User: Which sequence fits this backbone?
């Protein structure tokens, strides 16, 4: 047996073999940065910055566990309603995050996909995002979906418009618009549905995240604020997922 040495009070990160069942696709609503900043009497931007440290650890652990896909809610189509200062800080964090992480992610064979309306983002951010997607497009490891300027309803509307265009052009029949066909026109094309959705900070809502893909997801709402969320909390969530009975409508 391999012995794990850790600091007292700190749980060792678990490995794939420690879990009886792991999700193929994890989605995370990283919530609570604002409350964390307030609690520590800091500017909200500091809460978001601390949140990116959590994100780095969570991505690493997801990759170590060999999970297929991770979707991260980083900026919603509704988050433009925040102050220009906060939106500006979040936009800067996008640049900082990719500058510091892209080499490691690429080296780890992670494929980065940006889900959301890139055209609605400032040009500098758009360029960095397109570059990250292009650079990692042949990678075959973890699919890392970073959802930016993302809205679940907008994603479904976009799929409907693409399908309508195909029908209008005579390339598709109305009866070919199946659930699979719709899924093929979502940003997550080719990926499994979300198995586990985690939202930190105790809020229990979807806030327009991956509406179509979460049809049969298991939900977990840990109370911890995102900047305080640890790999051990993540392991606890994955363990709890393993204990869930997924019925998909059947009687087991
Ligand atoms: C989530 O943290 C991060 C983003 C929305 C980008 P919040 O900023 O929503 O944190 P709270 O909900 O105000 O605590
Ligand atoms: C959802 O969190 C968006 C992200 C985490 C990026 P919000 O904090 O914006 O959601 P609401 O407003 O509380 O529903
Ligand atoms: Mg919030």
Assistant:
């Amino acid at each position: 047996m391999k012995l794990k040495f850790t600091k007292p009070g700190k749980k060792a990160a678990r490995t794939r073999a420690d879990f009886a069942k792991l999700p193929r696709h994890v989605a995370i609503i990283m919530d609570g940065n604002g409350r964390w900043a307030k609690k520590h009497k800091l500017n909200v931007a500091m809460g978001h910055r601390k949140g990116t440290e959590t994100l780095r650890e969570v991505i690493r652990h997801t990759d170590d566990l060999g999970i297929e896909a991770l979707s991260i809610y980083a900026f919603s189509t509704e988050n433009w309603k925040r102050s220009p200062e906060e939106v500006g800080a979040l936009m800067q964090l996008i640049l900082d995050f990719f500058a510091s992480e892209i080499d490691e992610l690429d080296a780890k064979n992670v494929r980065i996909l940006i889900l959301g309306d890139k055209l609605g983002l400032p040009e500098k951010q758009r360029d960095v995002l397109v570059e990250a997607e292009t650079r990692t497009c042949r990678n075959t490891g973890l699919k890392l979906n970073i959802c930016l300027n993302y809205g679940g309803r907008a994603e479904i509307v976009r799929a409907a418009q693409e399908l309508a265009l195909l029908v209008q052009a005579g390339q598709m029949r109305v009866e070919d618009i199946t659930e699979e066909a719709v899924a093929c026109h979502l940003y997550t094309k080719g990926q499994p549905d979300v198995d586990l959705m985690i939202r930190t900070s105790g809020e229990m809502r979807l806030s327009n995240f991956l509406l179509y893909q979460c049809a049969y997801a298991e939900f977990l709402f840990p109370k911890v604020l995102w900047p305080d969320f640890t790999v051990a909390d993540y392991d606890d969530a994955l363990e709890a997922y393993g204990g869930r009975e997924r019925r998909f409508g059947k009687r087991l």
Q: What stands out?
A: The helical segments are 33-39, 44-64, 84-107, 123-135, 152-168, 179-184, 231-242. The two ends are 36 Å apart (CA to CA). DSSP finds seven helices and six strands in the chain. The first strand starts at residue 25 and ends at 29.
